[in-house]
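Exercise: predict the fold of this chain.
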Amino acid sequence: MGYPVGKRVPAGLPREHLRGGAFDLVAVASAVVLVGLGVANLYAVSGFGLAARQAVVALLGLALLGWLWRFRVRLLAALGWACYAVAIFFLLAVLVVGSSAKGATRWIDLGAVSFQPSELVKLGMLLVVASALGSAEPSWRRFALAVPLALAPIALTVVQPDLSTAALLTALAVVMLVLGRVPGRFLLSLVGAGVVAAPLAVGLLRPYQLERLGSFLAGSHTDPAGAGWAVQQARIALGSAGLLGPGQPLTHVLSQYLPERDTDLAVASVVEQFGVGAGAAVVLAALVLVWRLALATRATRNAHGALLAGGLAALIGVETTVSLGGNLGLLPLAGVPFPLLSYGGSALLVHLAALGVVLGVRRDGVRRPLWAVGSRRARRPRMVRAVALAITVLLLSFGHYGWRVRATEGPELAAAGQRQMTRCFPIPAPRGAITDRHGAPLAVSATDGMLRVFAVPALVREQPGGPERLAELTGQPVDTVRSALWSAPPTTLAVPVADVPAGAGPALARTGVILVDRARRDYPTGILLGPVLGYTGLATPTEMRRWPDLPLGQTVGRAGLEQQYDAVLRGIDGEQCVYVDPHGVPVAMGSHTEPVAGANLRLALDLGLQRVLHDRLVAAMRSQPGRIGAGVAMDPRNGQVLALASVPGYDNHIYGPPLDAGAVRAVAGQPGSPMRQHAAQTPVPPGSTFKLVIAAANQLYPVYPADRVIPTGASFTLGGHTFNNWKGMGPMDLRQSLAWSNDVYFYKLAVGLGPDKMISTADALGVGRPTGIDLPHESPGYLGTPASVRAKGGTWYGGSTVILGIGQGYLTTTPLQNARWTAAVATGQLVTPRLGLATGTDESNYLPLPAPPPTALPFAHLLGPVRDGMRAAVTGGTAGRLATLPAPVGAKTGTAQDGALPDHLYDNWISVAAPHDAPSIVLTAMVQGTGTGENSATAVAREALDHYLAHQRAEPSGRR
């Protein structure tokens, strides 16, 4: 129904229809929803002060809206020009007296009040451009008038520079030209000019704006650094929110990580504080407002009013779209606040005033309809509903994207939010015990019944009487506690206060206090197993490279088995977490996680045998200070190491905690390298024990049949060089030569075999490479070849081949390697020595550790004569002192010249397999010295084997 232009609504029209059509309650309600949520968000994130200030501005704005709603429309043009003139004046004034921030001058301060003229110009430009385009003038005149009116405020905002507002004003001007039915040819000229000017605009961007743009182009949510931090925090706010309220118990702390939460990221903050439902209400209210303004274009009395309504709909729609897109990371954060929601008195007043003007125009249109049906003078704005529909599609798409992010990434984002505001103090896990094969403790984590008290300075200081109460409970002077608390930076997580008895723990269980058991690593056997067990200490860069996930200050195994099995023994540290603000200052206690003790490690070692072997080595070396002794006992069937002794050694307790630096330096400076595990880490010439390898080579590559007797004598000459026997001997076969360690026999064998065959056999028996024992830093020894000697600049002479036959020359081995080839000869299989037997947390659930299976020697069937020679050494040869053992054994002795020793001292060896027919133990001992009296490797072996054979019994299932 239409009414003549300029005429009021007929008096007979029902008053309900008049009131309902004249006042758009839906639009005003939508605006109030946005304003109300904005004030509520300010109260939640910034407190009463800003919220009250914004509320006062909102009330003034609503009063202004009501006044403008009743404003006389015929004065609209005058209002527009006045508003425009005032805005231009202040835009000019801001360049002279304005205040600056981030390199831009945008505000004018009037005492306690400041306002932003670029916000006022939105209303002024909207009014005058709508007036120009809504006139009855020809299109070119309307265009020629509207463009300069728009360019003036745009240019002044660019100069500030306020590029986000300039971009909005540009978008508003273009939309107004489209709505005002300006011909396309004019618009194309503007588009062309914009394309040319766009590259120049980049030069006007401030560093923070370039950072925002670059972050968006790089994918702000995938690279949360720099400007991308803000977008990442907005996504965390979305993922952490509940449906109808906060999703986290400490939302007030998490919200502090969201930058610009009252302006650019106000939507994200509303969602975080009040739930996804509140976010949906924001988007819905904005959409309703856009559509009510768009529909108002059909109720205005003239084209001026219609363009005003359509322009405001477009402005609010663009602001809403850009702001919401920036919050979600779908658009750059352009510094565009969400209309009516974000903090800012100038923007709030201008938007409410503009809404009041449009509602006043609509009211006038309802009371005085502009067009009758079919009026030719009607120039309705074009594409208003299309613009509103496009904005609707974009906002709904953004909303769907946000919901999908929350549904698919919500838990991950919420966890990221918790991580960023959480700092945790580690609570060390008890380290697992190391025991021998029978459960005897070798290394344990022990507590002394004391608790170490740590305080979180920021939390204790803020408690009334907190420092005084803490001092009372810990028995410390108040001044001492205060000094510890106040001297620490606010971001300090914890400071030590005192050590107290464990019984005082319950009274100290209070906010800001962390209690940790005072523990240390205890080694009950002391020096007996020092180099084998190793020690623990703070992780060094080496350990950090080995285990990249280690936290700083972590205690780890630094040597020996403690290092080898650190991942098993270390356990999982507990933690006491605290929540911190974005500056890192603790604000509340967080979760507490109890530590998980490490698993226990059961070794193949037999503590009784270890003690006997070690003590006997100590006795053997007592007359040889500064020299070394070592011994190894191994099960030749599977490689389990039953004893591994090294003299001199060290007591692990010197490594603490606390570290006894003086004791460590003293031990490190002692002769004999006490820090080394000599059985696995110190290679020396093996002497005649290597004759087992040469005899095996003769069986594999026969030079002399094993039962062939050949002449020997007191010496052997080759190429003019004479090589002596250790004493003159008659003709002998292989067995006899092994029994009496006949050097001349093996000189001849070596020459007959040549270096390649001897070296090939030695390699097959594991000589010259690590055995693979589960200890760090094992020495591979050295097995020289003619080629390797030449590569090092040496010469392999004929004599080098001769002396290799008796274990001298380019050859060094460890006692462990010696035991390994002895076991291979005795059983026909090559085993991998291993100390670790099983791991578990209690006796009922120990699991065997994986171990490489034995490797059968391809020539095992040929080794019978060599084993017979070992037995003959005991029954009637150099190892006769072992003949009275309670079981038959086979052995090989050796005495080696060592260039590292004086001429009268030797490396004295013995390697024994027992029982001879079915060996269950191979024992190898080496002592440096004269080899006489107590300084005898054979005496060491005899006493250890006596103990083993006397105590041998069937092992419980799963321990072998």
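Check your answer against the key: The chain is about 50% helix and 15% strand.
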